[in-house]
UniProtKB/TrEMBL annotation:
InterPro entries: Hexapep (IPR001451), Trans_hexapeptide_repeat (IPR050179), Trimer_LpxA-like_sf (IPR011004). It holds the Pfam family Hexapep_2. CDD domains: LbH_MAT_like (cd04647). It comes from the Bacteria. The lineage of its organism: Bacteria, Bacillati, Bacillota, Bacilli, Bacillales. This is Acetyltransferase. It comes from Aquibacillus koreensis.
Amino acid sequence: MRNTERYRVSGANSLWHVYKTVPFWKVVKNFVIIQLARYTPFIGVKNWLYRTFLRMDVGNQTAFALMVMLDIMFPERISVGKNTVIGYNTTILAHEYLIKEYRLGDVKIGSEVMIGANSTILPGITIGDGAIVSAGTVVHKDVSPGTFVGGNPMRVIYTKEEMDKRIQQDDFFQSNE
């Protein structure tokens, strides 16, 4: 289950209430920074932009690929551990505006995580250390550490124990070649 805070609205759908929930100039600033970072080929510069201007917690040696789209309204609610790879064109959301409510949720991505290209991570998600998310996955629930997940809807492909066993088998076969 995703860990989100829910805020009811009345009248028009929640997106019509957007500037009651987040200041207009914050969105403009975030948009400019995120667009600069999306096209910047220098990983260190991207991480500096995210830490400095978006107040994100980004671990050392983490790499955001080209075109990664961060939550434009609440990027400070996204944290990423060290030595993690976020694949091309991945979207990470910390908010969702619905008809009768909007929801906010922290996104916590652990260390040594691999997120495949074109994935979408929804608000309120935790992805544990060492997890692998296959390309094109919609991450709609938490991912346990060391687990390999994929698909839409997302499902577990290998548990941590199964992944460890596969790695040991691969190491065995490579050492006997």
